[in-house]
Write a structure and sequence with these properties.
The relative contact order is 0.09. It is elongated and about 55 Å long. It folds into two domains: 67 residues; 117 residues. A three-stranded antiparallel beta sheet has the order 1-3-2. By secondary structure, the protein is mainly alpha-helical.
């Protein structure tokens, strides 16, 4: 893991832990893993590079310097990586708990990215479990399901989805084509 990746990963980890999408720079100074990067004023330090490249943004809020990701999609991607690594042993229940109890803006998109990573690794089990759970878990399942249809044979995805049929299977199937169609319309514009 490069220093830049370590810094971004740790920022996302702290955001998840604190349930805030923006963090005080002063708090980052004291962090054991990334404090030295943040304190360095060298132009080639990981923190300064990410600020200059526009990946991170500093703002003033209540007379404090605050740090956040500039691009929301990048934040979601890194958050998906953090969630994936933290939930490898906790499996699906931890994802459902995150969706229901974590107030971080972007948590749903982070879980979506985590599920897409599962799908890319040929594992649809957490996705199918979350679909069956319904509620907020169902909301986070439509995008990954659409990805599953793009990556894997349709028959396989349908067999796994309908192995334990429920109303949620129909609900998520209704949402997945909308997502796929929005991709088609975006790519043709």
């Amino acid at each position: 893991m490069t220093n830049n990746h370590l810094l971004l990963y740790r920022l996302a980890e702290l955001m998840l832990e604190k349930q805030q999408h923006i963090l005080a720079l002063d708090d980052l100074f004291e962090d054991e893993q990334i404090g030295s990067f943040v304190r360095s004023i060298q132009i080639d330090s990981p923190y300064q590079q990410l600020i200059f490249e526009g990946v991170l943004t500093e703002t003033i809020k209540e007379e404090r310097v605050m740090v956040t990701f500039t691009v929301e999609g990048y934040f979601h991607y890194v958050m998906g990586e953090v969630i994936e690594k933290q939930n490898l042993v906790h499996e699906s229940k931890a994802l459902k708990e995150l969706l229901e109890n974590n107030q971080l803006r972007g948590i749903t998109e982070g879980v979506e990215q985590c599920l897409v990573r599962d799908i890319e690794k040929n594992d649809l089990s957490r996705l199918m479990w979350l679909i069956d759970e319904g509620g907020k878990a169902l909301e986070a399942s439509a995008y990954p399901l659409a990805q599953a249809f793009l990556i894997h044979p349709i028959e396989r995805v349908m067999d796994e989805l309908l192995a334990d049929p429920s109303d949620n299977d129909i609900k998520v199937l209704e949402k997945a084509p909308e997502i796929s169609l929005s991709w088609v319309s975006e790519s043709s514009s």
